[in-house]
Amino acid sequence: TIRLPAAHRWKAFSEALHKWYANRPTDFKPMLETEDGEQLFPLVLFTNGAAILANQLYHTSMLLLLQNRPRTLPKEHGRNIYLSPLWHAQRICGISLNNDTRTSWDFSLLASFYFAAKRMTYEPQQHAILRGIDRIGSLTGWNVNSLSAQLMHEWQPD
To answer: What is the pLDDT of residues 78-100, one digit of tens each?
Structure first.
């Protein structure tokens, strides 16, 4: 088999993810999505656990992909919001902080939330994340104290 250059593979992954997001089933689209300057994170609500999982992992995949963008890839013209790591990280946090269904939580979503939360530098957002982790622990019965401690350590200035 011929192995394509990293830039080609990256672009193919990015395009496949964008295609899924643009063409996802109606049941996987948010029932409500708002973003204004008053909110710390976007409000993104779904009607079912599968939609929460699929969308949050889409944003996680994009965040991972964007953090590993090959340097040889030319920069896209204009400002494409889908190519902003912060946009995806904030969506992950918004989805997580509004997921109030015990049966919709699993460890992959918690790991995704933690991964995105590490990118947040605005202190009020950090406080909201810590409250959210406590709420997730109460909702699920999981011991999540170490995640809060790790995030506080991550957020410390160098």
So the answer is: 557 778 999 999 999 999 999 98
